[in-house]
């Protein structure tokens, strides 16, 4: 007879009824089902399908609410709490949230998922029998992936980050394409579990794609021009930067290359919104 394992879904028999709930058994081991964890009124010898986990005291308990993920089933779950130096908790659809241990998260906490991010997980137990969320490995993501075709080249793509490495980030799109974002194709490193939007810049023979989170050039000009304009607006319509400014100064202030800065500044000048004088840039008088 199989052991009762936290994280599994099993059908058990009601062995005993108490004022608080039901003792369930498989004939060898028992688990407790609190009355608040089932909508049914049960009787001795009734069979009930439940999900098993351990409570804060280490007692094996059951719920008739079957969660989105189990030891054998993966799904997307939402991050509901971040606890520094411990990990993040995810909602699996029952009254108990489950921890993704810091051992399975990126080494830098700024790359941990935030509340509202989603992770593709199953469940596992540690050496002490605690139930933990188990991040999907690459092989699991490949099993649910959809192959992209050349027709997807240069199309927009949206998806979740599921793995981080030194050279970049792996994502899976809304429709199931597996994508890789090289560190040169982003302005900042996305978090694990973050929803990102970009464009497909390459389709490989295996159906995976290369993705850029950088905007197309015309989109970049609009975005960069807006960033410059808002910065000037915050300073009363003037800034100590022009197309002659040092590239490092521009990068530090606006997080853009000098070439991108000059294109965006040229757009604002062409629209007669700004002018340059003595190394400064000013709003024109009609602003």
From TrEMBL:
Q: InterPro entries under this entry?
A: CvfB_fam, CvfB_S1_2nd, CvfB_S1_3rd, CvfB_S1_st, CvfB_WH, NA-bd_OB-fold, S1_domain, WH-like_DNA-bd_sf
Top-level taxon in the UniProt lineage: Bacteria
List the SMART domains.
Answer: S1
Query: Residue ranges of the S1 motif domain?
Result: 5-65, 152-214
Gene Ontology molecular-function annotations: nucleic acid binding
Family, per entry? Belongs to the CvfB family.
Query: What protein name does the entry list?
Result: S1 motif domain-containing protein
Task: List the source organism.
Answer: [Anoxybacillus] calidus
The record lists the lineage as: Bacteria, Bacillati, Bacillota, Bacilli, Bacillales
């Amino acid at each position: 007879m199989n052991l009762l394992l936290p994280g599994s879904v099993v059908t058990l028999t009601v062995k005993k009824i108490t004022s608080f709930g039901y003792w369930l058994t498989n004939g060898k081991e028992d688990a407790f089902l609190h009355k608040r964890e089932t909508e049914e009124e049960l009787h001795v010898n009734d069979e009930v399908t439940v999900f098993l986990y351990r409570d804060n005291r280490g007692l094996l308990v059951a719920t008739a609410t079957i969660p989105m993920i189990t030891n054998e089933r993966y799904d997307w779950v939402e991050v509901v709490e971040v606890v520094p130096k411990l990990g993040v908790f995810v909602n699996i659809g029952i009254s108990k949230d489950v921890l993704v241990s810091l051992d399975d998260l990126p080494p830098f906490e700024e790359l941990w998922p935030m509340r509202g991010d989603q992770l593709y997980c199953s469940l596992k137990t540690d050496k002490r029998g605690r139930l933990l969320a188990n991040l999907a490995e690459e092989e699991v993501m490949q099993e649910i992936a959809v192959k992209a075709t050349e027709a997807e080249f240069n199309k927009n793509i949206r998806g979740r980050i599921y793995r981080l490495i030194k050279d970049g980030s792996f994502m899976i799109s809304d429709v199931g394409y597996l994508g890789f974002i090289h560190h040169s194709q982003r302005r900042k490193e996305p978090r694990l579990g973050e929803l990102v939007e970009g464009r497909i810049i390459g389709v490989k023979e295996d159906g995976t794609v290369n993705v850029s989170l950088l905007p197309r050039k015309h989109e970049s000009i609009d975005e960069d021009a807006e960033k410059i304009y808002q910065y000037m607006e915050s300073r009363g319509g003037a800034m100590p930067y022009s197309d002659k400014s040092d590239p490092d100064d521009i990068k530090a202030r606006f997080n853009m290359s000098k070439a991108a800065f000059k294109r965006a500044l040229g757009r604002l000048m062409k629209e007669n919104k700004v002018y340059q004088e003595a190394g400064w840039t000013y709003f024109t008088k009609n602003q």
